[in-house]
Structures are given as structure tokens and as C-alpha cells.
Design a protein that fits this description.
The chain is an all-beta fold and 135 residues long. The chain folds into two domains: 2-70, Roll (SH3 type barrels); 84-129, Roll (SH3 type barrels). 0% of the residues lie in helices and 53% in strands. The protein has no helices and twelve strands. It has strands spanning 2-3, 9-10, 12-16, 31-40, 43-52, 58-64, 68-70, 84-89, 92-102, 105-110, 118-123, 127-129. The strands form three sheets. A five-stranded antiparallel sheet has the order 6-5-4-3-7, with no helix packed on it. A five-stranded antiparallel sheet has the order 11-10-9-8-12, with no helix packed on it. A two-stranded antiparallel ribbon has the order 1-2. A hairpin with a 2-residue loop joins strand 4 and strand 5. The two termini are 22 Å apart.
Amino acid sequence: MAASKKGVAALTTEYSTNYPWQWEPSLEGAYFAGVVIERTPGMRKVGFETLLNNDGTPLEESISMRHLRPCPPEVNTRFTVGDIVDACHNDGWWPGRYIWRDGNNCKVKFENMDPPNQTISYTKRHIRFHHEWSR
């Protein structure tokens, strides 16, 4: 955990863009890592690790608790063809389907990216099992 601006331990979290009010429609389905830096009733101010303002500083947004989840656990495991995974792509974690492994590279197919059904190659450390968070 990192220190927050108010001196309280900050929690690492992820923000889901699976909601109709999202600020960028092209980001739908992705999760973005951040750190909770301030708490108010029902809301959390999050400093994002990979999303930046135009001046290069980390983006900070106040977000409803219902749009945040804890980061999934890191699991060292083998993927099977057809597994639903998240791949670290364009500053976030995007859901896709594990297709095959080619040497040190793993192929992931994305049905909901633009263009649809594209397949991208990643190293194993950039892929994790997909987790849905329920309350």
C-alpha cells in the first residue's frame, strides 16, 4: 500500500469502465489500476497509475465506490485455450480469450475492441485470468 495525501495508507484498486456514464466510450470493458488517495462517503478519489493528464501528471478522478474493485490476485498459472483473460493493453486490462501460445508469446483474441475480433500477441506476464467482481 502507498501513502495517501492525507497520511492514511492508500489502497490499490481498479476502476471499471463498464458503465453507461463512462468518460470515454472507446474504453468500455477495460479496468485501470489506481490508488485511492482520498475517501468521502460513497466516493473515492483515485490517482491512476497509467492514465495521464495532458501535462503528463497522473489523472485523478472522484469515482463512486460501485465502480471500483480490489485488484485481482496475482496467480502464476497456465492458461488453457478458450480461457477468458485480461491483457495489459493501452494502459489498461482488456478482456479477451486466450487462443494459443507461440514460444514465449501468448495470443489473445478481443471480440469487443475496434476493429472487432483482432488477435494480439503478449508475453505471459501481461496476461491474467479475468475476474468479475460482485458485491
